[in-house]
Amino acid sequence: METETTEHTEGSGRRRFLEVLLGSSLAASVVSVLYPILQFVLPPRAAELDADTVVAAKADELAPNSAKIFRFGNRPGILIRSADGSYRAFSATCTHLDCTVQYRKRESDIWCACHNGVYDLQGRNVSGPPPRPLEAYDVHVRGDEIVVARQQKA
Amino acid sequence: MRKLAARLYAWLDLRLNLDDLIAPLRHKTVPVHYFSFWYYLGGMTLFLFLVQIGTGILLLLYYRPSPGEAFESVQFIMTKVRFGWLIRGLHAWAANLLIFTAVLHMFSTFFLKAYRAPRELTWMSGCVSLFLFLCFGFSGYLLPWNELAFFATKVGTEMAAAVPLIGHWLLVFLRGGEEVTGATLTRFFGFHVAVLPGITLLFLAIHLGLIQRQGISVPPGMDRAMHGLAYLRKHDPEAARTWMEAAGSPEMREMRFFPNFFLRELMAWYVALGVLATLAAFDPWELGVKADAFAPTPAGIHPEWYFLAVFQSLKLLPAKLLWIEGEQFGLLVFSAAALAWLLVPFIDRNPEGRSGRILKVVGVAVVLYLTGMTVWGWLG
User: Which of A144, B22, B119, B368 matches a 20 to 30 Å C-alpha distance to A15?
Assistant: First the structure.
């Protein structure tokens, strides 16, 4: 049985042209398969649930020297009522490794249980591994609602 | 580049003895004849199956198999994930095309009598694979957790209850309880992505291994002619030469698997990819309405086209036939027919004689019946 290829020399123009044509078509096919796959694999940016303000609690919900975790968009926030009755709010995501922090009554500080990171009531990282302070939020009391707002970056 | 490839090959060859592995491929040939066209359907089915594995794995990155999240996650794939509509469209369309090509492949091997000895096991492993593909279709249909899927699954699993003795047990096994609930979804998900792929890969390996081992079948008449020619050439070369000159060189009746057939096969795959991509791009698969167990079944509900023939037949049966329920009677007949179909190589004792002729007529009748019922169900 004869092979079907004809005996053109490698460099012949017509053959070269066909090789380029075939090669680029194959490359285009491969790209048109791989590109959608690559795009699909990378997840779309999760919608930041239009979270600039949120009602974090009712006015009578928190006793002095206590705190609660609230949903801020799709991340947790922490609302603290200090012993003097004033409110403050921070992102509850520890700046170290993304654990969720909690309020400690006795020490009146913010503590991350994962690696013993401690923040003071201004959200500053005072001991342990956290590299940065917690993001602080503005707190407004509107009627009987405690509204937490992202601080406007000026 | 070429030099590098050659060196890489030499390196691997030294360690794996690739030459020995490739040698059979070099000598493998594929018969060429008037019906060669049909050979490509099996390959196309394989290609579509590979597409299913690829797109299926991609969908797994986002899909969530729970009743609270399944519909939403598919919605997310369709609307938010880049090319999500395309990947899901490919998966859904390839599923349908795959069953279509598999059915055509089955009937072509049936009418070309490729199932005759020694290829009985190839036929049977192929039949089982088709059955598994149908199971894939049925289980996958539920996963988006939409209204149509929910009720189709209710009806489909309810049928299992008609099986004598173990019917109820089977229903509970399939549904993960008495009703179609989230438990059913979890179960079907497991079947669809773990159990069925495992079993199917096994049967496809058997199927393809047998084809590799036995070579590709040729229709009976041609088979005889080739054997006759070989005999003639051995005993009367002169007559063989005269015959060959008259008939056109019969040695042209084979082509090498690699690269000749392989490249043609590749082109068939390209055609399949083209058809698939066109369908997926221009007719994206719908998502429908989220399933609600307490909503009434929507009007005009019907299963996927590949179940329509059975669906339509069951619809036509009276409530009671002989001493059993009509539905039970219908399923009994279909099961018996499927079993007979699986055993065709053993029923057709003489493919070129009487049984062969009868089976050809039966085959035509089966094709007409299934096509007719499907069209009727589609229109009805």
Answer: B22
Contact assessment for residue B131 and residue B306, using Cβ atoms and an 8 Å cutoff: no
Cα B326 to Cα A9: distance, rounded to the nearest angstrom: 73
Give the model's confidence band at A48: pLDDT under 50 very low, under 70 low, under 90 confident, else very high: low
Same domain, B144 and B102: yes
Q: What is the pLDDT at residue B371?
A: 95
What is the average pLDDT score of chain B?
Answer: 88
* Overall domain count for chain A: 2
Prediction ipTM score: 0.71
Distance between CA atoms of residues A28 and A2, nearest Å: 32
- DSSP tag of B252: G
Whether the pLDDT of residue B323 is over 80: the answer is no
Domain assignment of residue B373, given as a range: 314-380
CA atoms of B323 and B309, how far apart (whole Å): 24
pLDDT of the residue at A1? 43
Q: Which of B87, B251, B260 sits opposite A36 (nearest CB)?
A: B87
What's the number of CA atoms in the CB half-sphere (13 Å) around residue B191? 22
Are A129 and A96 within 8 A, CB to CB?
A: yes
Q: What is the pLDDT of residues A95-152, one digit of tens each?
A: 888 888 889 888 888 988 888 889 998 989 888 888 889 999 999 888 888 888 888 7
Report how far residue A145's alpha carbon sits from residue B320's, in angstroms, rounded to the nearest whole number.
68
Q: Is the Cβ pair A41, B83 closer than 8 Å?
A: no
Cβ atoms of A141 and A59 closer than 8 Å: yes
Containing domain of residue A110, as a range?
A: 53-150
Among A49-63, A126-140, B96-110, B234-248, top mean pLDDT goes to B96-110
Interface of A with B (CB under 8 A): 1, 4, 29, 36-37, 39-44
Q: Do A40 and B260 touch (CB under 8 A)?
A: no
